[in-house]
Amino acid sequence: MIGERDTRPWGTWQVLDEGDGFKVKRITVRPQSRLSYQTHEHRAEHWAVVAGRATCVVDGRVVLAGPGDSVDVAIGQPHRITNLEDEDLVLIEVQMGRYTGEDDICRLEDDYGRLSA
């Protein structure tokens, strides 16, 4: 739902837009924090960095991205976003796929004890 937001151990997200087959989120990652290493069964993701510096892992490959850079993640590819800096990392995430629900996450590694069953 547009406007939906949540606070996670690593930062926050907010839904900016959504429609049939897509969802757009603003994601803020706190300094020295990272999301889980995860996969999605139903969606691909496109990350556009707008502030800060992202250290991303996509299918085992490290990608550094700053403002104006983007990173693509295919359906099923393991991925993670990390903020190794001392200021917030802000990115816009475009999810594309037949299903974009929050329960389409399979956590492979997690710093906060939230591994998938």
From TrEMBL:
Which InterPro entries would you find in this protein's record?
A: Man6P_isomerase-2_C, Mannose-6P_isomerase_type2, RmlC-like_jellyroll, RmlC_Cupin_sf
Pfam families per UniProt: MannoseP_isomer
Q: Name one GO molecular function term.
A: isomerase activity
Sorted alphabetically, the keyword list is: Isomerase
List residues of the Mannose-6-phosphate isomerase type II C-terminal domain: 7-110
Going by the entry's taxonomy, the superkingdom of the source organism is recorded as Bacteria
Q: What is this protein called?
A: Phosphomannose isomerase type II C-terminal cupin domain
Q: Which organism is it from?
A: Nocardioides deserti
